[in-house]
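Quick illustration, no need to memorize.
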Amino acid sequence: MRCPFCSHPDTQVVETRISEDAAFIRRRRQCASCEKRFTTYERAEVSFPAVVKKDGRRIEYESAKLRASLNLALRKRPVSTEQIDSAIDRIEEKLLATPTREVQSSRIGELVMRELKRLDKVAYIRFASVYRSFEDIDEFRALVDEVRK
């Protein structure tokens, strides 16, 4: 591993720790040249299915986009980062379990809506109002009535 400070190619692992959920390994490294320390994270590389957009384009799945969507819907709502992380994990587990190599973006949207409905009703309505692009107030009212039940 190259040193991020001096680009020297020789670094030594000083300490290794496994995360609490065993999802990654944290390593403290020290450069043999400048002796500065830095942290690296080792995580298993998984292959998510390609995302097929409404217009037919195929793009790579990006976890950051999923996180950004959830964070936007949950902005200023009483939901912890841990709850958001767990929701993302559940969505990604379902995507990884998909037997096909492609998934429709609408499927991801439905998975997000299901998680938001569990986490926070207001965030669910926020996301659904944009995701389903309501044309009139009656569609919006129907969604609110559904949540109230």
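Residues 50-148 form one domain.
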